[in-house]
Amino acid sequence: MPLTAANGVQGNWLRSAGIKKGDAVAIYMPLVCELPIAMLACARIGAVHSVVFGGFSAEALAQRIQDCKARVVLTAAGTKRGAKKLGLKQIVDRAVGMTKEGRGFKVEVCLVLDTPSVAKGECPWVKGRDVWWQEQVGKQGTDCKVCKAVFASNAQQSCCIVLSI
Questions:
Q1: pTM, 2 dp
Q2: Residue 12 maps to which CATH number?
Q3: 90: which of 75, 106, 149, 164 is 20 to 30 A away, CA to CA?
């Protein structure tokens, strides 16, 4: 699928999840093709994205989710670093739990990319919040209108939030 089409499909899914101009999306993924596609899709619909390095702890992720008030988190079931398996979804679950407990904030949807490093049966799941990327995003059409703010002359429109350690 061409990049523009993949970008449109992802943008349409974000819109179907209720994301609109100015809303924030947290992205906690390994280095896979879906990562830049998600970033571009957020920009396309005028949403602000915060990419969090996939090696950060649950505490660091929770802080970043809270800082941008992300209603949607995009992640993967897991990844491998060398021979070590990392359950990214498990880290997301702990982080989302921390944002609910101490910060009075709720993540509404967690879109999870199925990866070969973690079997579907091993991936923890929160019913009503978590959805599989491959099952949901593929249902969307490729035609996704660009948010007018993307082309507006207002240089104050945020596109991304970059936080360092």
A1: 0.90
A2: 3.40.50.980
A3: 164
